[in-house]
């Protein structure tokens, strides 16, 4: 259970840090701009009309290069972090 929580915490931290630092790199020096390049995928909202209820389903994901790097690092170090926590 502890290991799963550590994985979750580190991956969420990597996603958030990668998002904000990647956005900052995108608007900064051109040497570091590649860290902010984004890949977007998903599908647009689609309405399902059931006469009584209308459901809108849609999903979009965006990931940048820095997020991918930080998620990979988080997965590698999570077991070591988990073992070091008493």
Description:
The radius of gyration is 18 Å and the shape is flat. The protein starts with a helix and ends with a helix. The protein has a two-stranded antiparallel sheet with strand order 1-2. It has helices spanning 2-26, 65-84; strands at 38-49, 54-64. Helix 1 (2-26) runs antiparallel to helix 2. The protein contains two helices and two strands. The chain is α+β, with helices and mostly antiparallel strands and 86 residues long. The model has no long low-confidence stretch (mean pLDDT 92). 52% of the residues lie in helices and 27% in strands.
Which characteristics define this entry?
52% helix; 2 helices; 86 residues; alpha+beta; 2 strands
Write the layout of secondary structure elements.
Blueprint (H helix, E strand, L loop, with lengths): L1 H25 L11 E12 L4 E11 H20 L2
Antiparallel strand pairs: 1-2
